[in-house]
Amino acid sequence: MESTSKANLLNRLKDHLKRIKNLPSGPLYQSINKYLAELHLESGDEGVAIYHFVESQAVSLRLRTVEQINRLSMKCLGKSVPEDCHKTALEKKLLMLGSCQQESNFDSMMERLKDLPTEWTVVQLTSGYSPRQHVGNPSEVHTPPCVHVSRLDLCAGRPYSLRVPCASRVASRSGNFLRDFLGELEYLKLQYSTMQRENFSRYHLNKMAANSRMQTAMAQIEMNWLQHWRCILVGQLADEQLKNKLEAGLEKIVSNIEKWKSSNTPGVHLLMQALMASYSLSEFEVRKVVSHVTGSDLKSAECKAVAKDICSLGSSFPEMSTAKRHPVILIVDDTLKRLPWESISVLNSHPVTRIHSLHFLHALYKVYEHRIGDGVVQGVDPSKGHYIVNPDNNLNHMEGRIKSAVTSRLPEWRGTFGVKPTPQQFGSALQESDIFAYFGHGSGVQYLGNRQIQRLQVNAVTLLFGCNSTGLTSFGGRVESWSTDQCYIMSCSPCVIATLWNVIDVEIDKVSTNLLHHWLPPTKEMRKIIEDNKQKQPLKTTGNKAKDVDFDLVKRTTSDWRQEPRLLEAMRHGRAASQLFMTSASLVAIGLPVGLASNT
């Protein structure tokens, strides 16, 4: 009887998807797909469940992009559309909402995954289905009952998903962790807009208290929410020799567990993930992974022995915690986007970027497929850069700091200080440059609006170093959130760097300038300093006032300076320049991993 009821429910949900798929409400389409996914998981049909999790992401964004492509097609046919529309390179068929034929859709998803670079670790974080989203105040934020952590790459032979309960695992003042965290961000915004800097002691105390609360919150997410399953987020090792040694060692450990002899099963892959994350997991947490994989009791001698052997093997390779990794690509559910997943300790040394859905990952990959090598979009010309600094002309201290940094460090770049750009100037910089950097309020949409960005073909890696420059805006539970970075991805920017919330100007200036300093190739003067082995004063991190910080990047170059031509690796240097977790954690990458041209 129960199976019959579940079958009827599945059929009704699928029928409803068919009815609304041409022009659905984003949150409704998302919720139905999540509900279908959880029902299929209960039935043991993991593959179809993962398809529905994938299908639930970026619904309104995909619809808007398809609509934009259709409008551009009308322009090609001579019909009336805005003159500033440019043909997008994204393929419409890769973004459209799926039909309800499960087999063909699952096969289509698998074809997408096989097409992506094998170096990528693709993880989707999906909040669990909750009926509470559709009742009561639509603006009310609820902590989801669980998070489904899905590995979408094919390192394990096939994608797999794990359900991580989270409703009661993270302590908070009100019992609603997510609401409290977002409330903290609103408090920060209020503090930045109302606090008088003249009262420096009070400002500093509030700033450090907020910073401490945010650190605690993210530690709770990692240790009490994700727990041992944070190992799933760990990326692949770039060092093949180290990887082979670990695989050989793990094969010996599991050789006595008969049902896990095959190295292609997701079970053994989970053990490999635990091994690669053993620098961050306790032996008890590794034992939990072993228990899940083998089905053995957590307290059994076999489970304890295997976990101990895995930890022992991991500790014999201390370099693993800092070893170079291939890119990790996170697909983060709408409910979870404001959380800085990249800053949990297990991912600290990893190159991490976000993307809105598997559909956009695949579509953007196809745009830049001819330039991708070793999992990275290559060929970004560091000499073709453009910057816009303090366009409102009311951030004079910030302008002075950035001018000190860029004039000597980026001699080939073009740009303006304290000048408002016209929409045409802003758009031209995005289209004609390989790198575009914005230093000002917000994301710059006050100079080039979201709709105008969508109509462009953006070629530049876009760096937006303003407060809340993702522009992430929530419209309530019945409408999907919207962000400026979505417009840039629609316009085919290969990668966007932006902030998740309001940031302190001096701190984000440290982050942005150090990111550029380590990403871009050295100038002639820097090469001379390095060759002469002249030690220069490093960036001071003890001061809190702008005057305490030296922003002349060239003058403080030391002989141990190293370039990181891959942007995601250079972000690590940028984040390290700030003392404040709430500043370093705010910086995220959205899009594909990118790197400079190999001859730079």
Overview of the molecule:
With 600 residues, this protein is α/β, with parallel strands linked by helices. It has 20 helices and 14 strands. The strands form three sheets. Strands 9-8-10-11-12-13 form a six-stranded mixed sheet, with helices on both faces. Strands 3-2-1-4-5 form a five-stranded mixed sheet. A three-stranded mixed sheet has the order 6-7-14, with no helix packed on it. α16 links the parallel β11 (461-464) and β12 (495-499). The longest helix is centred in the middle third of the chain and has 27 residues, at 200-226. The protein is globular.
Describe, in short, the structure shown.
The protein has 600 residues and is of the alpha/beta class. The chain has 20 helices and 14 strands. It folds into three domains: 2-163, no CATH class; 237-321; 371-596, Rossmann fold (3-Layer(aba) Sandwich).
User: Reading side by side through the largest sheet, how are the strands ordered?
Assistant: 9-8-10-11-12-13
So how many helices?
A: 20
Strand-residue proportion: 5-15%
Q: What class would the helix/strand composition place it in?
A: alpha/beta
Query: How many strands appear in the DSSP assignment?
Result: 14
Task: Give the distance, in angstroms, between the N- and C-terminal Cα atoms.
Answer: 67 Å
How much helix, percentage-wise, in residues?
Answer: 40-55%
Give average pLDDT, whole number: 86
Fill in the CATH topology of the largest domain.
Rossmann fold
Q: What CATH architecture of the largest domain would you give?
A: 3-Layer(aba) Sandwich
Sheet having the most strands: 6 strands, mixed
Write down the overall geometry.
Answer: globular
Q: Structurally, how many domains make up the residues?
A: 3
- Can you tell me the CATH class of the largest domain? Alpha Beta
Poorly predicted parts = 536-548
Question: Radius of gyration from the CA trace?
Answer: 24 Å
